[in-house]
Amino acid sequence: MSLSQDILFEAQPYLIANEKHPFVQGIIHGELSPDQLRYYDEQDIAFEYNEVGIINALVNYSTNTEQALLFHKRQDLQLTMLRDWLAREPETMPHDWETLKQTPIQPINQMYRQHMAATIQTHSVLQILPSFAAGEWMYIELGKWMKSQTRVQDEPFKSFLTMGNGDFEGPHGYIQQFFNIIDHEAESATPREQEQAKQTFLKSCLLEWYFWDAAYKQITWDNWKAVALDGKGGPML
To answer: Where is the Thiaminase-2/PQQC domain (predicted)?
Structure first.
């Protein structure tokens, strides 16, 4: 079994958990409030901005030209997506490059961003790529699953979990090419390095669930502070 096959086998329970999350179910049934949608939109666009740095690291630490070209192509797509997304946002949301960089980052978003950024210090595509590829894979798989569901056709719900141009699916899509790179890099890695890469992927899958959860509950640093300072303790989530 290749490393990517092992990863995907162990990631299935995380996929099912994401499918069942109330926020994802709320997308299907159109049962999310404007405040929940706003929280998700603001945190997600800030998260996508953070991924620009992750993709840059993948370009920098590529082990061959083909990898570098693929990651550079993915970076072009990322920047184009962000440009178009910002152009659609109202003045009260991040609507240009400067306001995007100033977006307040809430707890789970920060944890996820730091989880991904921590892999950069390894200088290893095998360790950096799983942190990023997991979210891409989760989003695509949820989108495929959504096609089998009876979902509302009203916006903004209709556009959730859709990838418009097909660049991510199929044998030549980004997802499969990412897994091909993981398997290639794993050939020269130790068992410990392979296990670390797998656990990084699975942690990203887990944090995807918590990202939905944070948006569903609109969890902020003020909420965390209140729990910490009210003398009761106990988890927020």
So the answer is: 18-217
pLDDT 10s digits, 87-118: 888 888 888 888 888 899 999 999 999 999 99
Q: Is residue 99 part of a domain?
A: yes
CB 19 within 8 A of CB 138: no
Residue 73 belongs to domain with CATH number:
1.20.910.10
Q: Which of 60, 53, 110 is nearest to 82 (CA)?
A: 53
Confidence of residue 51 (pLDDT cuts 50, 70, 90): very high
The pair of structure tokens assigned to 33 is: 């409030």
Looking from the CA of 171 toward its CB, the CA atoms found within 13 Å total 0
CA atoms within 13 A on the CB side of 193: 16
Assess whether pLDDT exceeds 70 at residue 235.
no
**Largest Cα–Cα separation, the chain:** 56
Domain for residue 125, yes or no?
Answer: yes
What pLDDT is recorded for position 9?
98
What confidence tens digit (pLDDT) does each residue in 10-36 have? Answer: 999 999 999 999 999 999 999 999 999
